[in-house]
Amino acid sequence: MVARVHQTWRRSLQVRVVTITLVASSLLVGGFAYLIADKITSILLDNARTDVQQRVKSGATYAAKQVNLYGEPQEAQLQETIEGTVNYLAGGDPQQTSGVVVAITADGYPVIQTRTAPAANVQPLISPELRAAVAKGNVASQIRTGRLTGEPTKYLVYGSPVPTRFGQIELYYLVPLTRQDTTAADARATVVATGVALVVLLGLLAALVTRLVVNPVRVAARTAQRLSAGLLDQRMVVNGEDDLALLAASFNQMATNLQRQILRLEEMSRLQRRFTSDVSHELRTPLTTVRMAADLIFAERDEFDPAVARSAELLQAELDRFEELLTDLLEISRFDAGFAMLDAEPTDLVPVVHRVVERLSGLAERVGVPIELDLPGTPVIAEVDPRRVERVLRNLVGNAVEHGEARPVLITLGIDETAVAITVRDHGVGLKLGEEKLVFNRFWRADPSRARQTGGTGLGLSISLEDARLHGGWLEAWGAPGQGAQFRLTLPARAGDRLTTSPLRLVPADAALPFGGPRDGGPLAIGPGTGGALAIGPAPVEDGQRAEVRS
């Protein structure tokens, strides 16, 4: 539930705007409601205090006049006079129901009994602090809650001294605040209801306004998704002449321009592929004729002058390279056109590796590069296209021998439950910083001035990459200056499975980390991005300098 709420919060702009509006308006309205309710309560209490103060003042004056007729507290008529005074101050009726209780006490004269109107025990509501303040001759007040005639009630208790000829007595007014509390409660309820209604209206208004803004944005997002999916004819509906309509019109214009450019690029790409394919095919016929003539000349070269014989050998070598170039161009054109097919079958990769090594052993002996094998003792079976896998290995091993610098080239074969992998490790000059992003580009060479030993066409790694992708596999490269390079081919053991890991490490165990690693301007890693696109980012620290190209 929490995850769903968090996901909704992250994905919905409308939910965030409405929620923030509701929270902010609730805090603001709540603060105003508290201030207003507190102000109303203060006003009601002040009015009650003012009224009671006037009554206490006039009551004390009246009581003093009545009691001053007596010089001693023991006089017989004094008690009756106090009782009559209390009844008069209470409204003339001892049973009055206004709720106001009037009491006269004489703490300094025990002979004078406390009189109240209406009759009630007021002692619990008159605190010792209030009695002490009044006894000192001050008018004092407090708010107390107690039970006099019925339910517990909040009372405003005022006390005032009443001077007499024989000393001082005390007059108390106990005024119930029930009406004030009811009025304050009604006011608070009204303020809260108004605040809630205002917050709800603000929320609805925010939802409406954000909906007017978010809906066109959502439509633009959906249209953009359809455009990215290849539906180039998708457009937004333009309504009105406001900013959102301008956004829709600009989006449509952008989409139209993109469609025009994409169609133009697709047409150019199609023409380029067609041109490459047509040229490759058209060159086959003259090449066949030239090949026949060159073979005849090459076969009779021993009868020619040494210079002419050498020319015949060069002609034969260049024709071989030219033929390989045409074959590679045709293969590239098939990949570009999407016509390449995979003929997968269960294949033991160990003999495939041995065939590649045997085919390149002559070149390796000529350049002084020993080839070492690290192969399992048991068959390594995988559902692959053996012709394409052998072609990939020929390219990788041939490049490793060519750049091996007379140092060993190690070929390792590994397998696990889901994948097979082959690594080709050389100890040559390696790859410079940034070259790992270019190694699989067509016709790219690390050192243009370096003479090729194998007479390659410059398309080998590009075709190898396409062969790996056709299998649903990975072709990855690692390299570091002075440490050589290692290429890793990883293929699913069963055709159609998705790769997640490789049985072999891409970075060799004997590779040393460059100083500072990737954080100090280190190597980049090229790996699979969303939708099969290439993603470029910093390589992991333990991988040194590497380039990964995955399908």
TrEMBL record:
Domain (Histidine kinase): give its ranges.
Answer: 278-495
MF terms (GO), sorted A to Z: kinase activity
* Membrane-spanning parts: 17-37, 189-209
Q: Which InterPro entries does this one have?
A: HAMP_dom, HATPase_C_sf, HATPase_dom, His_kinase_dom, HisK_dim/P_dom, HisK_dim/P_sf, MtrAB_MtrB, Sig_transdc_His_kin-like_C
Its UniProt entry gives the catalysed reaction(s) as:
ATP + protein L-histidine = ADP + protein N-phospho-L-histidine
Q: Which PROSITE patterns match?
A: HAMP, HIS_KIN
List the Gene3D superfamilies hit by this protein, alphabetically: 1.10.287.130, 6.10.340.10, Histidine kinase-like ATPase, C-terminal domain
Ranges for the HAMP domain?
A: 211-263
Keywords for the protein's UniProt record, in alphabetical order: ATP-binding, Cell membrane, Kinase, Membrane, Nucleotide-binding, Phosphoprotein, Transferase, Transmembrane, Transmembrane helix, Two-component regulatory system
First-listed, main subcellular location of the protein, grouped into a coarse class: membrane
Q: How does it sit in the membrane?
A: Multi-pass membrane protein
- The record's EC number reads 2.7.13.3
Q: From which residue to which does any coiled coil extend? A: none
**Localization per record:** Cell membrane
The record's annotation in PANTHER family points to:
HYBRID SIGNAL TRANSDUCTION HISTIDINE KINASE C, TWO-COMPONENT HISTIDINE KINASE
Record-given protein name: Sensor histidine kinase MtrB
Species whose genome carries this gene: Micromonospora vulcania
Q: What is the lineage of its organism?
A: Bacteria, Bacillati, Actinomycetota, Actinomycetes, Micromonosporales
